[in-house]
Design goal:
By secondary structure, the chain is α+β, with helices and mostly antiparallel strands. It has one domain: Winged helix-like DNA-binding domain superfamily/Winged helix DNA-binding domain (Arc Repressor Mutant, subunit A, Orthogonal Bundle), CATH 1.10.10.10. Helix content is 52%, strand content 16%. It is built from six helices and three strands; from the N terminus they run ααβααββαα. It has a three-stranded antiparallel β-sheet with strand order 1-3-2. Helix 3 packs across helix 4. The chain is elongated and about 50 Å long. The protein starts with a helix and ends in a 6-residue tail after the last helix.
Length: 118
């Protein structure tokens, strides 16, 4: 059973944003690391919206970023930096804890009824 302290990180997300942020966390759990454009494409949400939610998840300590230099063929002298997002240990533990069947049903119930305030 989930205890109050287990739900504390979840209460920090705005009710309407729960689904988007939860989907981002689940996607990062599956894919390990992605950049914001790829997350936006896979979730079919505007990149500007995804960036906002990623910033909030980063503030909560659930995701982190790392910069990676990308070299395009013929433009090796002008590398482009790309910010990749990945789950922190705290984020991974949260996703694993809530992803169990019983807890997932419970979290969906909470999401529907607006209990979380991420």
């Amino acid at each position: 059973m989930l205890e109050n302290r287990d739900l504390q990180p979840l209460r920090k997300i705005e009710t309407r944003a729960n689904t988007t942020r939860w989907n981002i966390l689940l996607l990062l759990r599956k894919e390990i690391q992605l950049y914001s454009s790829e997350i936006a494409k896979r979730l079919n949400i505007q990149r500007k919206v995804i960036s906002y939610h990623l910033k909030k998840l980063e503030e909560l300590g659930l995701v982190q970023t790392r910069l990676k230099l990308i070299y395009k063929e013929g433009q090796e002298d002008r590398p482009r930096s790309v910010k990749y997002y990945y789950l922190t240990l705290k984020g991974l533990k949260l996703v694993q804890r809530i992803s169990t069947p019983v807890q997932k049903n419970l979290s969906q119930h909470f999401l529907r009824n607006g209990y979380f305030n991420f």
